[in-house]
## 1
Amino acid sequence: MTERDRVVQGILEGLQEAVAYSKGETIAARVTVLEVEDALNARKALKLSQAKFADLIGVPKRTVEGWEQGRTKPSGAARSLLKIATRNPEAVLQALK
């Protein structure tokens, strides 16, 4: 099977799954859960703007925007930091400032 054939086959399978889903059929699917509220809650707990929060944790502002809008997902280490910041914002401020 050529690369072109594999691509066409993948597209056809995707279309078949979309049709089955639209008919209410159960299909095997990959589900991605984005923890939008983790980033937003952590930033609000720290009482920082997106820009200042991004600077504090060492990521670009667009990264924080992506997390808060659900476009991207924080890495494992970032998720851990966000949880700590939500639960104990003073500790994060003390450690990172």
## 2
Amino acid sequence: MTRRRRVYEGKAKVLFEGPEPGTLVQYFKDDATAFNGVKKSTITGKGVLNNRISEHLMVRLTDIGIPNHFISRLNMREQLIKEVEIIPIEVIVRNVAAGSICTRLGLTEGTALPRALVEYCLKSDELNDPIISEEHITTFNWASPQELDEIMNMSLRVNDFLSGLFTGIGIKLIDFKLEFGRFFDGDEMQVILADEISPDNCRLWDVATNEKLDKDRFRRDLGGVEDAYQEVARRLGILPEGGPSDLKGSSSMQ
């Protein structure tokens, strides 16, 4: 097997150069981190499940006209994606109060918000991903006003679609994080959805019991992290081929 050049390694994924110009191979790791890398562990099979879940959701978003970086799934842990210039902003969409907003604003966890709330953070582990405003974004030219409008519109569309999709399988979409990038095709540039959508960057609660089915189980030492991720995949109908027994199966990290 030809070894490809490693382009970037983050906390949960590794990017390698792709087979064609303008493409990358995205490898999903089992590594789990929280609090910007302060807490670390390994969750067996997490990378396999996140690969499948993110693939499924990106394909569904493509179907409704949300442009994104996903091209195809290569194997259990790898995707072929479009190479983008990441915009250094994390977009947080909140439907229900949970996590840091409760601490910052004194809200009770589980309180439904009057409407979807969009927050922006600067993508910087060193600075602990500080919250920023639209004024910060345009002043420091992290994104143009037009790009910011596109990001906001796409984020709200993604929220509307995913909220309905998850409600249909008995899951509440509490909040989630999105990242966007600039995709260059010749002289044309388009802002598209990038990164991943999975229980790693979504808060997902069971509709009936409010049981957490996401990475909060790891953050809060609740246990059952693997089971929670599998449950999300099961409800989406996308457990890996052969079922849970495949989660430990080897797959290429080039």
## 3
Amino acid sequence: MIREISKKKTILITEDNDDHFLLTQEAFHEARLNFQLNRVKDGEELMKYLHHTQGKEAKAPQPSIIILDLNMPRKDGRETLKEIRNSSEFNKIPIVILTNSSHDMDSYITKKYGAQAYYKKPMYFDQLVEILKEIPKFIKEKNAI
């Protein structure tokens, strides 16, 4: 069976909190960004999703970018970032960190492992919209690779 390829770029969001995800969806809409948004709730689901983008029997579109939360159950974003960057299949996918964590070490670690950007989740909706408006520039960087 031939898989229909969507013309929309896919953004994979890792977010375990339903309310935060709904807010992020609304912020994408407010920012007038036309992407296919797919969601996973933790690092284990993220890696399963990525493996389903491979081969002739692929069941999911490979994301153009991953928005990664750091504090998640089962496998957190720090471990997941390292795993993705150590993978020959997925290490070129741009990753933007969007997290509640404000530890200096988290910012350092995520940059060390190749995240394109690190954002602290803002308190106000308008600030989230402004952060999300930055996402297309990271996708363009990927396409230049």
## 4
Amino acid sequence: MITFEYLIDFDFKPDMNHKIWINNTIRNEGKIPGEISYLFCNDEFMIENNIKYLNHDTYTDIITFDETFGDIINGSILISIDRVVENSKQFNTTKQNELIRVLIHGALHLCGYKDKTEYESEIMRQKEKIYIEKFNYNK
């Protein structure tokens, strides 16, 4: 079950179509969707958690806490809406499109994809592109 929780309010919230898409993505990756929670927050909350859990004193758009057991995908994903808005400006895209990218980015992390190296990042970007196209096609 995928849940969306909000610590801040914003005007481009994900809906049931996003949940279905994330579940389908996980299944396409040969995994089983379990309990996945997305928490939408601001930069302040995000940096506090980045310092507390990852020892990183930097802004980030997403933090993924992987609680996967075998092929059952479980975890918590924090998303900074401040970063989503800023990234949308930087990458010349809509807030909605940037939100879609970080939603699937977190799900892909839970499926086992990493982005610490250039090679891993390239694979992650390819996977994001594939699944974003599937979401846009099914809208």
